[in-house]
């Protein structure tokens, strides 16, 4: 199921990217920057249940960039707001609850889609999905280390401090596994909470 989700998601992102490039090439006269959003996210995650991996609760510290491309605003009354394609490079230290003196690492790139919906002048809510390749070095009898995919789904809000800068508060459910490219492949699931800051040009 995860493999099918990734294939569909990658296809949607490719189509959206092609639309983005076309839309931006048509609006070169406006001299807008390529990235409509530049920012970062700091976060913390923990296992959905204690038996996620036998070694202990998997707890990533999330250190991520967030770069968005927003070619157009939706003009449909049934689905207003701003759609963006975003990229999130990241290097995440990982701690296992029962191994207090060890630190592992995740690193990779997520590509995602986000729909930002304004509630009023300074506050907007959003929904997002993302996926991307990662490398992990955690040692577990349930999950092989090395190449892996990170699949995310979540929601959050932007609070605009100024017209072009916002605080981002979000929550995501994340699943990492490797599509059975290596065994074992039990997967690791976490609840992730984020706090970030972005400069936006919408």
Short descriptors:
Porin, 8-stranded antiparallel β-barrel, mainly beta, 1 helix, single chain, 202 residues
Integer tally of domains: 1
Structural class: mainly beta
Oligomer: single chain
CATH topology: Porin
Give the helix proportion (percent range): 10-25%
Question: Globular, elongated, flat, extended or rod-shaped: what is the shape?
Answer: elongated
Low-confidence stretches: none
Total number of beta strands: 9
CATH architecture: Beta Barrel
Number of helices: 1
Radius of gyration, in angstroms, nearest whole number = 18 Å
- Widest β-sheet, arrangement of strands: 1-2-4-5-6-7-8-9
**Element pattern in H and E:** HEEEEEEEEE
Beta-strand residue fraction: over 45%
State the end-to-end CA separation: 35 Å
**Largest sheet report:** 8 strands, antiparallel, barrel
Summarize the structure.
It contains 1 helix and 9 strands, in the order H-E-E-E-E-E-E-E-E-E. The protein is mostly beta strands and 202 residues long.
Write up what this structure looks like.
With 202 residues, the chain is mostly beta strands. It has one domain (2-200): Porin (Beta Barrel), CATH 2.40.160. It has one helix and nine strands. The chain has one helix at 2-26, and strands at residues 37-47, 58-69, 73-74, 81-96, 99-120, 123-136, 146-162, 165-177, 188-200. An eight-stranded antiparallel barrel has the order 1-2-4-5-6-7-8-9. Strand 3 (73-74) and strand 4 (81-96) form a beta hairpin. The radius of gyration is 18 Å and the shape is elongated.
């Amino acid at each position: 199921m995860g493999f099918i989700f990734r294939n569909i998601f990658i296809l949607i992102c490719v189509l959206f990217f092609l639309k983005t490039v076309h839309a931006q090439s048509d609006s070169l006269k406006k001299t807008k920057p390529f990235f409509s959003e530049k920012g970062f996210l700091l976060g913390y995650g923990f296992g959905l249940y204690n038996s996620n991996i036998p070694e202990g609760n998997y707890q990533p510290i999330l250190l991520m960039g967030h770069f968005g491309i927003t070619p157009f605003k939706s003009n449909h009354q049934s689905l207003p707001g701003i759609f963006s394609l975003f990229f999130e490079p990241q290097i995440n230290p990982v701690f296992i609850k029962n191994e207090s003196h060890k630190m592992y690492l995740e690193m990779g790139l997520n590509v995602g889609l986000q729909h930002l919906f304004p509630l009023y002048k300074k506050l907007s809510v959003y929904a997002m999905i993302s996926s991307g390749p990662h490398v992990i070095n955690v040692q577990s009898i349930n999950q092989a280390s090395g190449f892996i995919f990170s699949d995310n789904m979540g929601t959050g809000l932007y609070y605009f401090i100024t017209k072009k800068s916002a605080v981002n508060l979000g929550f995501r459910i994340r699943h990492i596994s490797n599509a059975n490219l290596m065994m074992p492949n039990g997967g690791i699931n976490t609840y992730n909470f984020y706090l970030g800051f972005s400069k936006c040009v919408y």
